[in-house]
Amino acid sequence: MMPPKFNEGSARAALYHFLEQRLASRSLPFTDHGFINQRTVATQIGLSQSYVSRSRDIVRYFEEKANNGYLEDRLAALGAFIERGFRNRTLHYSQGRLDRQQAFEAISVGRKAKIAPSIENSLVEYDRRAFDLGYDPSPDLPPVYIPPGSQRERIYLTIQECIANDEPIWKHSCVLKVAIAKKMGIDQANLTLHPEIFEYFNAKYGNRDVNEDVLDRQVEAAIRASIDQRLVDVVSGKLEHRSLIRDAIPEAFSTAERRGRMQALFERFDREAIDAGYICVRKEKSLRELAELLSTGRFTHELYGTANLVKLREALGIPRLFKEAEDLIEAFEKGNATRLASDSYVAAIDGRFFSFAELDLLGYSAEYVERMAKAFRQSYSELDGSNAGRMHLVLLELMRWAKGQGGIIATIVDRLNVRGSVTDVDWVYVLIQFRDSLEEQSRPRVVRTINNLNRKLSVHGLFPWLPAGIAEGRSRKPLGTIKSFAEVAPRSADDHEKTVDGFIEFIEKLTNANNLSLFAECDRLDSRNFFNALRQDFLINGKEGPLEVIAATRTLIEKRQTLLNTRFKHLIEEGVGRLIEGDDLASEGADPSLYWDAISEKSLSQSQRSRIFREYFPHPDTNDRCALKNCLRLIRDRFRRKAPLADEDGYWFFKNRYQEIATSSEIQSYLLPSNDLMHACASVYFQASGVNLPVGRGLLEKCYQQSQDKNYRRVVGFKTRAKGKPIIYYFEMRSDECSALEVALKWGKYLRDIAPPAYKDLMFLQRVGPRIQPINQYGLRTFFKKQRQTIAELRDIPLTPQMWRPSLLLMCAIDNGGKLGTALALAQHTENVSLSYYDRLPLRLMAEIQSRHFKELLEACTIHAIPGGAAFISLDTNLIEARLAEAIDVGIGITCADPYARSSETQLMCETLDCFRCKQMRIMIEAESLSWLIIWRSSLEQAEGDWTRDHPERWEEEFVPFLALVEVVEELMSPAMFLPVWREAEEIADQRLNDPDFRPYQPWN
């Protein structure tokens, strides 16, 4: 038993130490029943008895510890008393038994005490010793112990009076206890404590007219009749008819001498009946029913050859099986196992029996079924029972399915029993048809099992040999992705259905034949996610905002990120304000050295300690919050800012302060960053960086670093899957992200100071009860959900923290014209990693726009070069001319003197765009043409970063020479006669570049 808990200096501690001292000195005060006397303890220690009763765990603890020593002490006292009684002949003795009441009272133990059975066992030994010694009490000593004035004496006198008055208190030569209890006006249960009194009167007065031989014959006849009727059961080698016969002939058991004689009769007749195969009628009937049930075969596990005990008990209507039934079942199971082991249709593996008899019933030949059972056992004898069972189930499923088919499959299956009559091509056809009939989810597993079965059983000639088996035929699974903020719709938008028609018109406009092919996109699950989210947002916001899928997606993500960031920044401001207030309050508190050591002194009296408490921690608190200030100062200076909780040092003092001043969580929020504050700081960082959540949660304190640019800070993370490769993000000093990280760095220091060594270097920590540990995914998810539900616009939208990363990468790709280079660099992915981040509706739409624009221009150029080509393929000539004019408008300001000159065949035009090295290149010195050259240079300069990062070789080979060409042209135009033309060209280029509807030509991929 674990020692009870208590606080030093408390009343519980005083009680514990008092009982501990008394136990050591073997002076614990006990009652007659072997329990600690709580009244005596309360008086001696100066506590109320009710308080001692409420501290039952301490009292019980010392009772358990004292139990063994107390019993030994009482047994020693009993031995001394008995020895003294033998010498002085003062022990009451009747019917071969010492009087128990005298013995128990002599050692001050109640007859219902916990140690009473041990005392009784010892007295039985003393009974034998008294018999061996021929003990004879003193002549003037009555046979039974009758203490003057006791209840026992009153019972004795009452019975004696009834006998003297010849009152009707007898039944079957025994005193009726109920009559005596009624005459005395007491409960009959009180009489059970004095069996010696009743045995004395039964032996002395109740048996005067009883013939002992007649009694013996009556009991013997009753025992024989019970055995002949077979109504009672056998339990522990005895027939259960003792109580029945005792009730019928109670006078035969009224004295100890008679009870011994009758017990010998019972034992003799019970032994004879059991040796002769005695069984009660009820069990015999149950055994017959059990044998019939087992013979039906419906109550056996054929796989194991064992009986189904649960169903058998239900069918028999008995809660548990008796020994004879268990013996019968055991014999049945042994015989059944022997039968199954010798059955030619059964394969025995690892204690299990796999039957193929069903195949015989399906129509397979007996010889084929026998061969299959034998081959299965030989092929899979090394497997354990569960794996062999899996093979058996699939094999039976295949054979059952094949037999149920018609046509060519039925013909093939009918020839299986003839070795070599089925070709491998035919068998492959059967297996493929079986595979296609399976559920898609279980198909790969079943096909692997079928291939294994075919490989094993074909060796025995049961199936054709297939070297490679059949393919699993897996269908391409839809790409699993984590949704972005733009793919989650509110759960309900019923209040805004009035504007749904406008959104439907918007989508239909985008999905017409002359626009994007969104009809095909609508079948994709991730596209439907985008449509649902945009539709719901459209319903909620009416017709405000951009009516274009890509722009709407970006707007939706930005709006939801802004709402969350606003909430996070509010929590950070609130949490930091609380901590600053806590430091200010603690600074105004009293120095703990003035009182803490004094009140911690154990020798200090309770009144002195209370006086110091109230001097520094008044209750109720004063207007200037003196108690709160002193409490915060004490926790800050002596407990490293961590308010003690249960089972921690100092909790004995703060437990009451939490009740008087403020709760522990409220006090703690003044000194240590709250979990909401740390989660908010982490969330701002996660949402802005798009970092993997496991990487961000493991961010180290030293990972927040200075940057080469003084206006920026960099954050360096490490990803295990990237083999330690650093993951670096840059944030502007004035950004919300840097502010959040600065807060986590400054105030999180107090959490790191008290954290376990393994967590001391982490940036983001949280408190979980008394422990300090890193923020985890569950806490972050709970925090995120709680904060989302405080924002009215997001309350019904099931956003999660996992959506931060895909949202940021999607935004990055949208902002870079649909190109993935920047998003890949931000995520630090290679081109073949995490396609799910980038294969999303807005990016597919942007790629389709660019691809369609390029194809239309290519179509126009190709058809224009063929005289009459447009009319030949039924295209509008004006449309081709318009597209070709657009191609000229977005050119690069270079014309070609002879487009056929670079081809070996004069019929083919030049198909390359390396004009910078071609002799046919011409540049017109006029503002319109030069403006396109300037625009082309602008496009190249904007794309330089992407190309040098992703394709540096192609950049050096194909586009750097163009930049050099434009620089040469600009230098040649610098003389005074050409400079006005160049400046006019720059003005035209600036006007076009500033036009929001203008799309300059971009470097090709």
Which strand order spans the largest sheet, edge to edge or round the barrel? Answer: 11-12-13
Coarse morphology: flat
Distance between the termini: 78 Å
- Count of alpha and pi helical runs: 43
- What composes the largest sheet? 3 strands, antiparallel
What is the radius of gyration computed over CA atoms, rounded to a whole number of angstroms?
A: 50 Å
A few lines on this structure:
This protein is mostly helical and 1005 residues long. It is 57% helix and 5% strand.
Task: Provide keyphrases for this structure.
43 helices, mainly alpha, 1005 residues, 17 strands, two-stranded antiparallel ribbon
Description:
The longest helix is centred in the middle third of the chain and has 39 residues, at about 550-585. The protein is flat and about 160 Å long. The protein starts with 10 loop residues before the first helix and ends in an 11-residue tail after the last helix. The chain contains 43 helices and 17 strands. Among the domains are: about 10-145, no CATH class; about 210-280, no CATH class; about 590-670, no CATH class; about 685-795, no CATH class; about 890-995, no CATH class. Helix 36 (about 805-815) runs antiparallel to helix 37. The strands form eight sheets. It has a three-stranded antiparallel sheet with strand order 11-12-13, covered by helices on one side. A two-stranded antiparallel sheet has the order 1-2. The protein is mostly helical.
